[in-house]
């Protein structure tokens, strides 16, 4: 009623507010909203579709100019303000650094000088170490062909695009993408990759076919690179020795430091904890290469009661409850198809989906030794280990035979069993293993399958 009275020029805003006991600002805002709606209705459909403000872009596409500065540039700007008398605004504009970040760093620097304490000293040391690490990473990427990358769910991601960019199942595709798409910001983008420093304590790099890009010297091992850079190019690396983690992303995954082979990337990634002891668990003494890995590990020692929200089943570890929830109650949001929005709970399900819906994108892997072809990288890797692998890491305790695959050792160990607990239902012949019973029934009784009975 108050709005109608004002719109009909029967009384002013103030009079209407006093008469109807409503705030003056509320009446004014309501009248403005009505006027805007009437204006929109009077516009053509094309004009009406125009947004008053630009549509918010996805996170990966937003303008990240506030992050496009380097720590070195920021330090130059701080020095210009402190020692050259330049104003904060002019320094921010000249060196293209965020004004608020520059002001905050200046404020912290002044406060630390006036009232220094142990916490400030510790933060300064951490900042200096991280700054030194970033500069050393730039040196590695300048003098070698190493490729920085990130990983999630055993898939490779470009370090510059982060996990918002494309995912790669084949390391060759990752290397091609990085060399072609990011050739201009190979070193310039390191500051962005390692920011914020508390989430990026270490950096993974691929050193497949590593060589020096300055003098074209082949660097067979990770330690050879450190010696070569120091002896030939006078580049001394300190922080990078413990915080840059080398991987050789080849078809057969091996540790870049000790040469041990692994069936998948996840196991190789876990193995690297044994080579880097920056973080140690106080409960069991296990070592980890980053604080985030240690934090996940500590959950193992935090036992309690963790019930499932859906079925109420109780687990003594939170990670077991989460795993149960994903497997049993069908959360299908872990593994995304690289070519469409579909998601799956297992990598094999995603592979089947790609075979059915994106056949043209499937890459065929060919064994260079026997010529056998595979449509999935895990199949190829398993074939290379099983048929052409030189290392047999699984040893039988009874007869000292060795096998390249764990399941082969398990099948072999059944031959050493003395008890014959598997009995044929037709002729009552007894066997040590289930596989032996099945073969017997197929050969002598023409059974496609066999019932298995275990003697109590």
How would you describe what is shown here?
With 456 residues, this protein is of the alpha+beta class. It is 44% helix and 11% strand. It has helices spanning 2-7, 13-20, 24-42, 45-49, 71-83, 88-95, 99-114, 118-143, 171-181, 190-193, 222-233, 240-243, 265-271, 291-298, 318-328, 347-357, 377-388, 406-413, 434-444; strands spanning 147-152, 155-158, 167-168, 203-206, 244-247, 253-254, 261-262, 279-280, 287-288, 306-307, 314-315, 335-336, 343-344, 365-366, 373-374, 394-395, 402-403, 422-423, 430-431, 453-454. The strands form eight sheets. Strands 3-2-1-4-5 form a five-stranded mixed beta sheet. The chain has a three-stranded antiparallel beta sheet with strand order 19-18-20. The N and C termini lie far apart (89 Å). Residues 1-65 are annotated as: Disordered.
SSE diagram, text form:
Blueprint lengths: L1 H6 L5 H8 L3 H19 L2 H5 L21 H13 L4 H8 L3 H16 L3 H26 L3 E6 L2 E4 L8 E2 L2 H11 L8 H4 L9 E4 L15 H12 L6 H4 E4 L5 E2 L6 E2 L2 H7 L7 E2 L6 E2 L2 H8 L7 E2 L6 E2 L2 H11 L6 E2 L6 E2 L2 H11 L7 E2 L6 E2 L2 H12 L5 E2 L6 E2 L2 H8 L8 E2 L6 E2 L2 H11 L8 E2 L2
Helix pairs in contact: 5-6
């Amino acid at each position: 009623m108050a709005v109608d009275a004002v719109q009909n020029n029967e009384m002013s805003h103030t009079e209407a507010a006093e008469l109807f006991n409503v705030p003056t600002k509320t009446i004014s805002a309501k009248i403005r909203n009505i006027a805007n709606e009437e204006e929109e209705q009077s516009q053509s459909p094309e004009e009406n579709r125009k947004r008053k403000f630009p549509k918010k872009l996805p996170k990966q596409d937003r303008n990240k100019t506030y992050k496009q500065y380097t720590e070195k540039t920021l330090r130059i700007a701080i020095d210009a303000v402190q020692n050259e008398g330049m104003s904060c605004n002019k320094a921010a504009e000249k060196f293209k650094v965020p004004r608020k970040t520059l002001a905050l760093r200046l404020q912290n620097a002044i406060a630390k000088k006036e009232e220094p304490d142990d916490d400030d000293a510790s933060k300064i040391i951490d900042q200096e170490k991280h700054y030194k690490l970033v500069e050393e990473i730039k040196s590695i990427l300048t003098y070698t062909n190493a490729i920085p990358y990130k990983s999630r769910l055993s898939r490779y991601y470009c370090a510059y695009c982060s996990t918002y960019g494309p995912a790669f199942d084949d390391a060759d595709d990752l290397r091609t993408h990085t060399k072609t798409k990011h050739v201009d910001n190979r070193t310039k983008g390191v500051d962005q990759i390692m920011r914020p420093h508390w989430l990026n304590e270490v950096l993974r790099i691929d050193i497949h076919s590593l060589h020096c890009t300055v003098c074209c010297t082949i660097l067979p091992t990770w330690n050879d690179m450190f010696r070569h850079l120091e002896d030939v190019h006078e580049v001394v690396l300190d922080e990078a020795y413990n915080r840059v983690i080398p991987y050789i992303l080849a078809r057969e995954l091996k540790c870049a430091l000790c040469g041990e082979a692994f069936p998948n990337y996840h196991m190789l990634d876990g193995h690297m904890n044994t080579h880097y002891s920056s973080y140690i668990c106080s409960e069991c003494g296990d070592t980890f290469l980053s604080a985030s890995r240690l934090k996940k590990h500590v959950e193992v020692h935090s036992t309690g009661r963790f019930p499932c929200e859906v079925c109420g089943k109780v687990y003594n570890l939170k990670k077991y409850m989460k795993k149960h929830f994903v497997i049993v109650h069908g959360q299908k949001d872990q593994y995304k198809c690289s070519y469409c929005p579909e998601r799956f709970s297992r990598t094999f399900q995603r592979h089947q989906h790609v075979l059915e819906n994106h056949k043209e994108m499937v890459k065929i892997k060919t064994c260079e030794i026997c010529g056998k072809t595979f449509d999935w990288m895990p199949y190829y890797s398993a074939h290379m280990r099983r048929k052409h692998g030189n290392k047999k890491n699984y040893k039988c305790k009874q007869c000292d035979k060795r096998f390249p695959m764990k399941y082969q050792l398990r099948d072999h160990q059944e031959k050493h069993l003395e008890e014959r607990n598997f009995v044929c239902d037709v002729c009552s012949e007894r066997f040590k293993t289930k596989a032996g019973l099945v073969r017997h029934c197929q050969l002598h009784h023409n059974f496609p399958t066999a019932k298995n009975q275990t003697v109590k």
